[in-house]
Amino acid sequence: MKQKDLVEAYKLLGEASIKSLEDKDGVIIIKNRMAMRSYADACDAMVKDAKEKFEPEGIEAMQEKLQNWNKLSVPERKEVDNFYRAYQEKIDAVCGPELDKEIDCPIEKISVDAGMKLLKENGWPISRLDTIAFMVG
């Protein structure tokens, strides 16, 4: 699986309530999160580092402009947009290839019934199941 998919699942499961699940499925989710944690923490650290290292001069002024977006002229909006686009492109150049790497993380599967209980208990749309599909089956 791709590292970015694992990180997204880790975060989603971290926010999830699992009270309605059978104990065995709850244990699997907790163990899976433990296995995913090092990958998620490493990604978070990489993104944080990239944001800090590539932070452009004048970001405070651009943040002020961004907060007043509705008051900006079209050229000012383009300036802000280009500023943040260039910043994000630098971050993506570093983080993108790492997040797209295939990783081998030992994941146990929960039952389909448990997946459906997660959806109901957390009020998730069915599309959220796609995020954890690799561990449901």
Low-confidence stretches: none
Main β-sheet description: none
Mean pLDDT, as a whole number?
95
Instruction: Work out the strand percent.
Output: under 5%
Structural class, by secondary structure, is mainly alpha
Number of domains: 1
Rg, nearest Å: 19 Å
In one word, what is the shape?
A: elongated
Could you tell me how far the N terminus lies from the C terminus, measured between alpha carbons in angstroms?
16 Å
**Helix segment tally:** 6
Question: Keyphrases for this structure?
Answer:
single chain, 137 residues, mainly alpha, 6 helices, 69% helix
Provide structural commentary:
The chain is mainly alpha-helical. It has helices spanning 3-15, 23-54, 59-67, 74-99, 112-122, 128-131. Helix 1 (3-15) packs across helix 2 and helix 2 (23-54) packs across helix 4 (74-99). It is elongated. The two termini are 16 Å apart.
Task: Please give a quick description of this structure.
By secondary structure, the chain is mainly alpha-helical.
